[in-house]
Amino acid sequence: MKDGFIKTAAVTPKIRVADPEYNCGQICGGIREAYAQGARILVFPELCLTGYTCGDLFLQERLLSEAKKQLDRIIEYTEGYDALVFVGLPVEWNGRLYNAAAAVSDGKLLALIPKRSIPNYGEFYEARHFAPGMRTPESFLWNDEEVPFGTDILLRADAVEGLIVACEICEDLWSADTPGTAHALAGANVIVNLSASNETIGKDTYREMLVKATSARLVSGYIYCSAGEGESTQDLVFGAHCIIAENGGILAQKKDFKSGILYGELDVQRLRYERRRMNTWRASDAPGYRVVPFHLEEEETKLTRLFNNMPFVPSDQSERDRRCEEILSIQSYGLKKRYEHTGAKTAVIGISGGLDSTLALLVTVRTFDMLGLSRKSIFAVTMPCFGTTDRTYDNACKLAKTLGLTLEEVDIKDAVRTHFRDIRQDEDRHDVTYENGQARERTQVLMDIANREGGLVIGTGDMSELALGWATYNGDHMSMYGVNAGVPKTLVRHLVRYYADVCGKEELKNVLLDVLDTPVSPELLPPVEGKISQKTEDLVGPYELHDFFLYYMLRLGFSPAKIYRIAVRAFAGLYEKEVIRKWLVTFYRRFFMQQFKRSCLPDGPKVGSVAVSPRGDLRMPSDASIRAWQTELEQIK
Description:
The protein is an alpha/beta fold and 637 residues long.
């Protein structure tokens, strides 16, 4: 359960309708197998101990007594298993019959939770046999021991901080007033659903949508387990549709009509973080709820869930293209409003032939086209200096030409040399003053050209650079609108690639592809044999690692050790553990040290769920201590 992960299982056994003894054996086999695989929350289908399709046989004393007997066998079987197991069966109480879930752990019956919403339409006629469950738990005598019986029951684990499990049954999920809503507001962050939902065309899609939306709305984990092989009879066929979801995302699902087990590791820490950060999340005092503790041994959950090593970039091509188009629209419409508000008619962009300035240029072109302004009013300024290579210079010029912009060249070498003489900087000493002097000179040139033309300087720096502080303070750090401020470096590349694919102009496409093939560099140090000598990722580390760290730290609140753990898994075969740890230390050091640069950023559009603007997502003091995070980093082996 380290880092808040707990392995769960949705177990669909192959049953026989109206044969509790046989079904008990199948359920025990499922418990044994799932537990051996590390699952500690196990969910079986609705009424799986008897079968859902028993019809009027539910009224037979023989079936009910046999179901009770076989549940006792299951309870006894779980002794020594530190797992929470949910099994569906019919339960008679006070002369009425209930469709219930038995919560069992380590040889004990913890609770009986009845179904609240009893469907009686279409192919369903449960009201013929079952009564709606009561909310407030009452005492139920089971083998001379009292157990709570009602829907409003929370099961709290002792080995996973904050893990609280609640239960609803099939139709409860479909109803307008779902028990799950009350459960979540009472504190449950994992909801299980025992179901016997038959298959009709399109129903699986609707079911998946319900589970995803419910887990998102309730900021919870959701384990949905439905009946399958063996349950089908007469007019109904069951597809064994099982889904494990977390906060709106599907971790795993199966629908193959066969018996089997679906596994998924829920992240309880993440769910707790999400609820903490949402001030609209309002937990209730949970009047009437009964809290039942259960025990789990503390252990490290072996992870099988996947972590996208590029969390900002969709893996699906069509989804990636859709997102690229949306981001370009967000960027260009944000810039469009700035132009409408200021009345400016020209734009000034420093172009280097690199990715960031290329993206800013493309966004500005889209904006001017929307505004009906001439592209000639976009001043693409190239400012060659000591580190400029022919390749990047040529690409910068070609971009301006193919896009129909006004290209202006300002060679800043003499100006920088004069400045170096003024401040007694040796030109042969390639230190931070040498580099930043060039960056600030370029910014001064851009600002003054913007004044000359009555325009705005469009910033080019991306979110990854801002997170690392990889910008010259009051140099490329500053602009009048930073169109890339919300775009991480790993996504910049895909945006430029997308534009190349859809622009419809072969000459422009070829230039963009060459820009994509150029190493990322600020080009502030002299080239070697005409080639770029200063590669950013050699200095600060791979951006794909830094973007991964940034996402899981800011968006999900993961600790350094947890980020390291999942990074090792996500980048297996790409980076060694030692390399990941090295750059993780660098990331945290730079992120904390460079906040002062982010505290005074220019405006720029937020495009995703992570942003570093001091007016948006990140309210961070410039002088916060890194010690607590550093201590954990030092303990990573």
